[in-house]
Amino acid sequence: MTDSILLREDRGAVAELTLNAPERLNALSDAMLRALHVELGRLRTDTKIRAVILRGAGKVFCAGHDLKEMQAGRQAEDGGRAYFADLFMRCAKVMTGVQRIPQPVIAEVHGIATAAGCQLVASCDMAIAAEGTKFGVNGVNIGLFCSTPMVALSRNIPRKQAFEMLTTGKFIPADKAEALGLINRVVPQADLQSATRELADTVASKLGAAVKIGKEAFYEQIQMPLDQAYVYTGDVMVQNMLYRDTNEGITAFLEKRDPDWTQ
Question: What is the pLDDT of residues 35-90, one digit of tens each?
């Protein structure tokens, strides 16, 4: 798979996905979006995998959309309207697909994550970045406001900070991204893979069925009014409590032993 635009390596219960177009700064080209969409579909039904790591090959994590492809799409008779509409729809399906698969997805970020690349980080469930990494939604610098990256960004960080990034096109450093909540933490470059792997292994060690129902509930309830969210999550907890393995987990805790989970 070394020549594939998207690499996948399963190590135990963790799937490691690598954006593998370093010569194009891992741009979200048509081919990259297609590969991500397909792989996310496979992960959705893969019960052996309990956590996913997403990283980029080469010097950077992801530099956003492929501008050369976008300019080529403009050559159509309609000026590119149909191509652009399809492109942003396909990109949105990938971003929402990250959150809709049952496994938590952890971005392992280095170099830069800009425009749709920053959107991809914001769409992941968690993120760890190397020291020196920069984040930006810089489209405004070339006359293209990052409206679709704005959706994920504004759901991660305070609105005034998001709006400043969107309207100035300036990068923010990793420590500020951590302080704002875009990423979970910053680690030395040499520790990036091990720190991300440690987090993934911790998540993968939990009861998969519980994490699956919990991840879905997390994104559903966050969009609801408070009272509705409590009703919804109460029902989710009832379902979770009725799992055989949840009963075993509670019993094992009370008996001070390791649980004998079947899932």
Answer: 999 999 999 999 999 999 999 999 999 999 999 999 999 988 898 999 999 999 99
Beta bridge partners of 65: 28
**Which residues have a Cβ under 8 Å from the Cβ of 195 and sit 6 or more positions away?**
128, 185, 187
User: Minimal CA–CA distance to 213: which of 239, 192, 181?
Assistant: 239
Residues 6 or more apart whose CB falls under 8 angstroms from that of 179 comprise none
Sign of CA pseudo-dihedral 225, 206, 192, 54? negative
What's the chain's average pLDDT?
96
- How far apart (Å, rounded) are the C-alpha atoms in residues 205 and 88? 36
Residue whose C-alpha is closest to residue 20's, from 2, 38, 41:
2
Domain range annotation of the chain: 6-204, 208-254
Q: Decide whether 6-204 matches 208-254 in CATH topology.
A: no
Q: Give bridge partners of residue 193 from the DSSP assignment.
A: none
Q: How far apart are CA 235 and CA 238, in angstroms?
A: 5
Supply 82's token pair: 């149909």
Q: Crossing angle, helix 81-100 and helix 30-44, to 10 degrees?
A: 30
CA-to-CA separations, 176 to 80, 135, 184, in angstroms, rounded = 37, 9, 11
**Secondary structure percentages of the chain, helix, strand, coil, to 5:** 50, 15, 30
CA 183, 187, 189, 190 torsion-angle sign = negative
Angstrom distances, CA of residue 74 to CA of 25, 77, 162: 22, 8, 29
Tell me the CATH class for 208-254: mainly alpha
| Domain covering 6-204 assigned CATH 3.90.226.10 in the classification | yes
Q: Phi and psi (nearest 5°) for 73?
A: -65, -25
